[in-house]
Amino acid sequence: METDTRIRILDAAERLFVMHGLDATTLRMITAEAQANLAAVNYHFGSKEALTEAVFRRRLTWLNEQRIAALSAFEAEAKGQPLKPRQIVEAFFGVAIRMAADHNGGQTFMRLLGRTYTEPTEFVRKFLAEEYAEVIARFKAAFFKALPDVPQEEFLWRFHFMMGALSYAISGTEALRLLGPIDDSDPEALYARLMSFLIGGLRAPLPDLVVKPVAKTARKPRAKRAA
Amino acid sequence: METDTRIRILDAAERLFVMHGLDATTLRMITAEAQANLAAVNYHFGSKEALTEAVFRRRLTWLNEQRIAALSAFEAEAKGQPLKPRQIVEAFFGVAIRMAADHNGGQTFMRLLGRTYTEPTEFVRKFLAEEYAEVIARFKAAFFKALPDVPQEEFLWRFHFMMGALSYAISGTEALRLLGPIDDSDPEALYARLMSFLIGGLRAPLPDLVVKPVAKTARKPRAKRAA
DNA sequence: GTCTATAGGGGGATAGAC
DNA sequence: GTCTATCCCCCTATAGAC
Fold it and tell me: Does B118 contact A172 at a Cβ distance shorter than 8 Å?
């Protein structure tokens, strides 16, 4: 019945971080929520910063392994052929959405992750960059192969926009209330909605960019067909 | 050459808020940056919270007025006919992107706004809800009219996803580095890229919400009619 | 391993001189 | 309007008893 103090601290920190942000969450709040002593954090983790890293690493490593596993499975199936964009989106964003639907802590963590991208503490940013390096490299390569007609820079922006949509899909329960009453209780529906939106955006007609203009000139508002 | 202390404090707070977040920014940092005395914040604004509100209100009111003006202009032109989705997206997101391109403070502010949605302090959330009430109502109505075949709940989610993409488009300069080197120096290009992505997502085929959970229990009767 | 107690540093806010 | 000085609070981290 009595769970490990270390685990209780990680769980409490995760919950409080997502509610109040990293900085506004104090060790006193964490240890009170975890029913542990104030000194327990420093005993088990060494510092607040080290605890923060542990909170992220605990689930993020697993999440990115799942993403890579999903991508690898599709690639094995495709036998060297480019994947369908939908499969790659599924492997990256679908896995994240499913983790966000997991009420056993995954949900809390994904909300934390969603708000952390736009909340850049120096050490968290550095840490995230390391944790993401491999998965980003794998998915970039897969996307470039699957979408040879989309310029790579255009794709990187779209990937970035997709991450924004994912972030709001997950952590947006609060911000969403701005728009009025909405039902966010069905993870399957959210999954379907987000996938549809992302693929629509990813495969949108390419914007008609002026080819490196030095002077400001009129632009044609029309777009071209995408691949 | 000596500008108003009040203005210098607002500018300094805006810059520091976007760099460190609301909570981690101290009055001491703000007054040092503004070359003002520590007591000046409380003299001019009353409290840190009141200063925070002033920082947001200064530009947000103007931004939302611009959005409503842009929408009204399109509506006047349309003479009662539904607008094109592209026009509504332009009025809401285009205005924001253009403000983000304004190096005269607008850029800083939009980055702040982008990270604030996912960083919910109770009083900021309440404040944003008030500031946004009118503009949200106007744009929801316009979208519903322009997209009669998209179920309203589906649209609200898509609007939410679009806000996520906007947020990352603006404040994502940092998070973006995860993806590798990328050129974010051309606001016109960013504008074109985001518009294209948003409209692609907004007009994506509707997700089939009923077929998905086939292995699980039956879900709600229907996903309304599709177009 | 877990606790109490405390050190040592900032934090927001304010009183009162100028 | 602006400044100095200060109050009182809460923070992280640690020393040392149990």
Answer: yes
The fold of A1-46 is Arc Repressor Mutant, subunit A (1.10.10)
- A37 vs B171: CA distance, rounded Å: 38
pLDDT tens digit sequence for B27-77: 999 999 999 999 999 999 999 999 999 999 999 999 999 999 999 999 999
Amino acid at B60: L
Among residues 170-189 of chain A, which lie with CB inside 8 Å of chain B? 171-172, 174-180, 182-183, 186, 188-189
CA angle at residue A86 from A138 to B225, to 5 degrees?
155
A56-175+185-202 maps to CATH 2.40.50.140: no
Token match 């997209």: residue? B147
On the CB side of A33, how many CA atoms lie within 13 Å of its CA? Answer: 19
Helices A187-202/A152-171 angle, 10° precision: 160
How close is the nearest chain B Cα to the Cα of A184, in Å? 9
